[in-house]
Amino acid sequence: MSLSDDTLRKILVQIQQTAVQSQRALNIAVQQTTAKDRERRILQLTIDEISGIQGDVNLYKGVGKMFMMVPRKEMEKELKDQEKELADDISNLTKKSKYLEKQFNDAQAQLRDIFHHAPKQQ
Prior knowledge:
- The chain is mainly α.
- The protein has 2 helices and 2 strands, in the order H-E-E-H.
- The radius of gyration is 25 Å and the shape is rod-shaped.
- The mean pLDDT is 89.
């Protein structure tokens, strides 16, 4: 059974679009992962600095253009919650990246198969 040229062309365009969309989404996911990982490292450094401070010290949290005094325990809890949330986001983005990479590779493989098995014209 042979497909018409028009049908084959539509299939090729659809596979190419899938590959391009997957590649773009993958690049975005990788950029988001990098940004969230950077944020997480900054939070970890902040937590380490706060943990290293001895005694009861006043800590201040930036809120808009002002700073509010926050108890140390509350600040540590907020930072750890933010770190956990970022870790979850990174995990989800990693899963998404793996899926998009697989989708891109599958589309590329389909294109290779189509062109590899295409009849040679003379």
